[in-house]
Amino acid sequence: MEKHPSHTSIKRFFLSLFGNVLNFIYVNPCIQSVFSALSIYGEDGLFSMHNHDFMKDPHFRSAYRRGIQANGKDLYWKWRVHVGLWAASHAVQLDGDFVECGVNRGFLSSSIMEYLHWNSVGKKFYLFDTFHGLDDDLVSPEEKALGRIEESHRVYPDCYMEVKKNFQKYKNVTLIRGSVPSTLFTVSIRRVCYLSIDMNNYTPEIAAAEYFWPKLVPGAIILLDDYAYKGFLPQKKAFDAFARKKGISILSLPTGQGLIIKP
Ligand SMILES: C[S@@+](CC[C@H](N)C(=O)[O-])C[C@H]1O[C@@H](n2cnc3c(N)ncnc32)[C@H](O)[C@@H]1O
Hints:
This protein has helices spanning 5-27, 29-37, 58-71, 78-91, 107-116, 141-145, 148-155, 160-167, 202-212, 233-246; strands at 41-43, 46-48, 97-101, 125-129, 173-177, 192-197, 216-224, 251-252, 258-261. By secondary structure, it is α/β, with parallel strands linked by helices. The chain folds into 2 domains: 1-38; 54-261, Rossmann fold (3-Layer(aba) Sandwich), CATH 3.40.50.150. The strands form 2 sheets. A 7-stranded mixed beta sheet has the order 5-4-3-6-7-9-8, sandwiched between helices. Strands 1-2 form a two-stranded antiparallel sheet. Helix 9 (202-212) links the parallel strand 6 and strand 7 (216-224).
């Protein structure tokens, strides 16, 4: 049933207020030290009293620090990065290469390279991005209404030269600059064991998932950054349809990510 417009604006107001309070909590060192003393995890929309000892692991810590260095600032993504590192550690044991569509400054991909000691891995890492934000022409009306284009213009200034410098120390890393899906056909990638998709809009994301699906080896991981994330429902709907078509299911994670294992 159609909701009364004033109900919708009140709901929006409270959600935005709640979001601002949460953002204040994530970045506030005093609140974070209280959380730490009480063994509470609280950032990035996720609050948990469950064990999160991964945060004390020196390998995790140095990988996460590398992500911050690449990005220029912390994104408070510890549990998300933990999931990414787990996925990469699983995938690295399979045949095939690593791909990320939606790299930005390389927070997650740099953490992974640090964690896996990339220069000794012997695989290729293909990094697809415009390196200056979303391709406006691919953003759906529903996503436009959610403010995706304005957000992209605000948050993603051109970063290509910095990103190139960031990855210089790693072997076998290829940056593919331009809009997905057009750029997918410009490189020859035969087998993929790890595919991270994080472009904040579903048209290129689904195109990338379709393109790489036959190239994914059995057991390969697709990590969807925004699958269950608040405010990104169009991507969830599109990937649910993708999953139905492929006869698979997506593990919805409390971090907002979605996880697919290729059968
Ligand atoms: C949320 S950021 C990615 C964050 C990244 N995974 C990290 O670890 O920091 C989304 C990225 O997707 C890129 N992007 C969005 N649409 C794209 C498209 N059609 N083709 C290529 N890149 C795209 C943007 O330029 C932006 O850098």
